Amino acid sequence: MATDYDAPRKTEEEAGPASIEELQARRSDKQSAVVDVDETEAAEGFELPGADLSGEELLVRVVPPQEDEFTCNSCFLVRHRSQLAVEKNGLAYCKDCEG
Fold first, then answer.
1. At residue 43, what are phi and psi to the nearest 5 degrees?
2. Annotated region Disordered: where (predicted)?
3. How far is CA 72 from CA 18, 66, 77, in A?
4. CA-to-CA distance for 74 and 79, rounded, in angstroms?
5. Alpha helix stretches (DSSP H) within 1-99
6. pLDDT at residue 72, as a whole number
């Protein structure tokens, strides 16, 4: 259904006064008896076509830590030395976590 957004809007006087009984009747008509379902429960039974990756093999190249990198002990991300905020008891923390 197309909506003409350029058409003039009706004013409150043209729309007419709505009685409290009419408003309550409209509100009760639109209520649904559907019970909310937990998203995780609903997602467990839902399978995407072609989503079975059990037979797939992943090849990942592991690179040893570089001299200008460190691993933050709070977020466990590998960061460049320029992101080092503080080193406490031999543990390094990045600027984002220490901030």
1. -75, -25
2. 1-49
3. 62, 14, 6
4. 12
5. 12-15, 20-30, 39-44, 95-98
6. 95
Q: Render each residue's pLDDT in the chain as its tens digit; 99 residues.
A: 677 788 787 766 666 666 777 777 777 665 566 666 677 777 777 777 777 778 888 899 999 989 999 999 999 999 999 999 999 999 999 999 986
CA 57 from centre of chain: 29
d(CA 94, CA 97): 6
AA letter at 46: F
* DSSP annotation of 81: G
How many angstroms separate the Cα of 78 from the Cα of each of 1, 30, 40?
Answer: 53, 53, 31
Count of CB atoms situated within 10 Å of the CB of 87 = 11
Q: 93 with 85: CB under 8 angstroms?
A: yes
Count CB atoms within 10 A of the CB of residue 73.
15
